[in-house]
């Protein structure tokens, strides 16, 4: 009888331990399910949607997302593009390379005014970039007001000093020292225009529902490539900066909505007459291309 | 005695259950510690460095990273850029916008050959893009071999079919249906060139040490913007694709090293004579620019 009781208790314990293990497994599964985005509701949504760096009022709950089939199919039309004779094409590709190869990141910008029409044209050009599912997830905020430019400078310099002194690590600071960049950004006051490029991490469809912006960071970066090409083509200069941790403050300063995150900040103008650039070279073709 | 045995066994079971729970907790903690990047060792390194989607041989441990001050400071030279009279600048900006605005993503590509020199020039142009700390973190793999192109197609179509059927969710598929894209990618066989754009998530410095590539994805996307501009300027077409989950397989197919991750795949050629494009419009200027 005693032995039977002991065996009974032992079996009971094994069963309890087994049940305990099962419950643990379930917990793990639930935990995982929570941390993994629910693919059906929001496939491939940018991580920024879940960032906690925002200051100011929180976005209202989760909102409605556009459902399948709410947008109609587009009709297709013939593609009408320019075609050049081979020798013209070769020459055009060479000329365009020569022009773009003269582009440099310039940190010394002239205060001379630049026609607004040129700025509009280069931004229109940036807006021709392709984007995931044609969502066009970009907003270009062009600051020419001296007081706002100065506010931008204050925000950037304050954060950049912290970045340089604490956040970036010796290695990065050293890498950048070669290019003589630091947290004093005089060009933010001097340049006639500051172009702040925001990526829209989601869109707002008709009716106020949220609309997924697939690959929004890649799309907006591509559009910045076109922006740089357009500036170079017009004889203007800029420096492509990604002000670390300034995004939320600059977004609020410029009163942009919560779905927009700062991706790049480009001061734009003519080069200063005494502008210098680091004596960099670019990799030769063989170092960047592989033919198969 | 019998009761004592039973109590003893029960206590033993409780102790065992407790130890079991403790060991579970430790496992969870270790799992978390591994997934969090060690910020000090590698500031701002791309998440891809820790992706587990790689197939094939694992990268050898962690490797050495270039230390501060191992690279010398660059001297600075005067910036010599073109400057145009105002009316010329306005006209140039308008003409360039008109040219870029004719660009479309074209999925119907002619098999006609395209001079290799043009491809080299457009890739040189892409290589003029700015990059974080001038790391130039891009590799352009140009595939013209028909057998390799077909292998690329097989990989992409196999993965894309899974994406469309299972991974993407109804909403994304519906968003893309408007543009009539699906997992059959005939252009991968037909286009004279496939340009596979890899981002180098880190570099290898002289001496075999690893070198941080700051903002490599943004940099490579910007260079793709320049690539698109150069193709459009030459009268060639492409479609900017980001083949989901194909990266590791295509990297191995093309024998690229572990630090390179596929960012985009662009089939390049003349447009097919019967090429069509979705009847899309672009947002007007007022919808993409905000003047402050």
From TrEMBL, chains A, B:
Enzyme Commission code: 1.21.1.1
InterPro entries in UniProt: Nitroreductase, Nitroreductase-like, Nitroreductase/BluB
Essential cofactor(s): FMN
Residue ranges occupied by any Nitroreductase domain in the UniProt entry: 102-270
Signal peptide: 1-25
Keyword Oxidoreductase: yes
Domain of life of the organism encoding this protein: Eukaryota
Family under the similarity heading: Belongs to the nitroreductase family.
Cross-referenced PANTHER family: IODOTYROSINE DEIODINASE 1, NADPH NITROREDUCTASE
Protein's name in the database: iodotyrosine deiodinase
Organism of this sequence: Esox lucius
């Amino acid at each position: 009888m005693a032995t039977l009781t002991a065996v009974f208790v032992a079996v009971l314990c094994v069963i309890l331990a087994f049940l305990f293990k099962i419950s643990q497994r379930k917990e793990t599964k639930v935990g995982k399910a929570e941390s993994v985005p629910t693919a059906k509701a929001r496939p491939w949504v940018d991580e920024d949607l879940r960032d906690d760096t925002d200051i100011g009022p929180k976005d209202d709950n989760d909102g409605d997302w556009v459902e399948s089939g709410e947008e109609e199919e587009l009709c297709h039309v013939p593609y009408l593009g320019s075609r050049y004779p081979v020798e013209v094409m070769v020459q055009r590709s060479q000329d365009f390379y020569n022009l773009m190869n003269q582009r440099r990141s310039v940190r010394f910008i002239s205060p001379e005014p630049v026609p607004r029409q040129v700025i509009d044209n280069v931004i229109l050009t940036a807006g021709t970039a392709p984007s995931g599912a044609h969502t066009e997830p970009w907003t270009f905020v062009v600051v020419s007001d001296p007081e706002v430019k100065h506010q931008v400078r204050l925000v950037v310099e304050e954060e950049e000093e912290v970045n340089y002194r604490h956040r970036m690590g010796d290695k990065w600071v050293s890498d950048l020292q070669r290019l003589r960049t630091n947290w004093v950004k005089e060009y933010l006051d001097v340049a006639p225009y500051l172009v702040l490029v925001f990526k829209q991490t989601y869109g707002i469809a008709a009716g106020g529902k949220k609309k997924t912006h697939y690959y929004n960071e890649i799309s907006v970066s591509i559009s910045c490539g076109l922006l740089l090409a357009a500036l170079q083509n017009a004889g203007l200069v800029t420096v492509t900066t990604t002000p670390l941790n300034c995004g939320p403050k600059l977004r609020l300063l410029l009163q942009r909505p919560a779905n927009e995150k700062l991706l790049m900040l480009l001061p734009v103008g003519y080069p200063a007459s005494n502008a210098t650039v680091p004596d960099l070279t670019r990799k030769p073709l063989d170092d960047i291309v592989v033919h198969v």
